[in-house]
Amino acid sequence: MRKLIMSAAAAAVLASGGAAFAAVKHTTGTVNTYDGTAMSLVLDDGSIFTLPKAFKDPGLKAGERVRVSWDMSGNNKIAEAVRIVK
């Protein structure tokens, strides 16, 4: 019984550690370019984000300050949300 509890506890610790790495990240910056056709957003620091097909443009334009919530998919940064900040 003790081995079963210890195994379950170890599995829970290992599983929770992986969830921390899957957390959504946030980046704040200024829009360098936004291409609604290619579904891409480039910030002034060179960060490139791929936008989802269902992305609704909140009025992005060069020079606009934004906060991007994103996650990695392979080598690509996939934006989950883009919000204009003042």
UniProtKB/TrEMBL annotation:
Pfam families: DUF1344. Residues 1-22 form the signal peptide. InterPro entries: DUF1344 (IPR009780). Keywords: Signal. This is DUF1344 domain-containing protein. It comes from Mesorhizobium mediterraneum.
